[in-house]
Amino acid sequence: MYMLQTRLCVGLVVALLSSTPLASDDCVDEQPNCESWAAAGECKKNAGFMSRACPRSCGTCPPPIDPALLELGPERVVMDIEGYGKVTLGFYPKAAPVTVPHLLSLFRLGCYDSNHIFRVDKGFVAQVQSVSQGSVLSPLSAECAREAAKTVPGEFTGIRHVRGMLSMGRMSDPDSGGSSFSMLLGRAAHLDGEYTVFGKVLDGDDVLKSVEEVETRQEGIFVMPKKRITITSAIVHAEEQEL
Predict the structure, then answer these.
(1) What's the pLDDT band for 7 if we cut at 50, 70, 90?
(2) Would I find Ion transport among this entry's keywords (predicted)?
(3) In the predicted model, is pLDDT for residue 193 greater than 80?
């Protein structure tokens, strides 16, 4: 009982110290020690990290996401991962109006066929290699080369990087998105507002779970599979629009 009362008191102190309203139900702390860190003043001392990792305890919950941003477009991409199964991708054209058409063009041209997932960081991301570097099994067509050479701007919204979301890869320039993208394997708060979320995995989380279990090796900052994970095909289908 004493420990419970102590935790309640700490929570009350944190709430009183915050000048913002109490957090909404969909705003959660990402770390188990957020309450104690907040009570120790870390929300101000380490604001950059704490505002994202501990939004509930620090009173930095983002505003509600505009539901329109989460409306799926009519296209679905069925990506066949050799030896693992199929993953179905859906897209958010209102959240990423430049990124989505660019990627759909690459998919329609067959640019991801025989590409591969070059990065598998369990609980973080499964990242598809850029088109220009991804395929060693078939030559890159001239059409794919032209489309892949284009870059897209950062289209940052309030959509959070949680498991299943699709996030655009880029270099240090926020407007340098090309053709590499990640399927999120867990919460990655540090990517919010820094990388474009353009869609989500609609079906095939069981496939991603199998991919997560592959043997990996560390190469610089990347955790990479020891054996190539080939995308045999990625085909665009049209579906009825849904939320």
Answers:
(1) very low
(2) no
(3) yes
* Number of domains into which the chain is organized: 2
Mark whether 122 and 194 lie in a shared domain. yes
Count CA atoms closer than 13 A to 89's CA, side-chain side: 27
Domain of residue 106, CATH code: 2.40.100.10
Domain encompassing residue 22: 2-58
**Is 128 within the bounds of a domain?**
yes
Q: Are residues 132 and 28 in the same domain?
A: no
Considering only residues 14 and 131, tell me which one the structure prediction assigns the higher pLDDT.
Answer: 131
Query: Are 168 and 99 spatial neighbours (Cβ–Cβ below 8 Å)?
Result: yes
- Cβ pair 131, 112 in contact under 8 A: yes
Boundary-marking domain end, from 16, 37, 58: 58
Tokens of 141: 């067509």
Who's near 88: CB < 8 A, 6+ residues apart?
76, 77, 78, 79, 201, 202, 203, 204
My answer on whether 184 and 226 are in the same domain is yes
pLDDT mean over 129-143: 79
Q: Scan for tokens 């309640």, then name that residue.
A: 8
Rounded to whole angstroms, how far apart are CA atoms 140 and 136? Answer: 9
Query: How far apart are the C-alpha atoms of 56 and 25, rounded to whole Å?
Result: 9
> What whole-number distance in Å separates Cα of residue 113 and Cα of residue 230?
9
Pairing outcome for strands 229-238 and 165-168: unpaired
Higher pLDDT, 52 or 185: 185
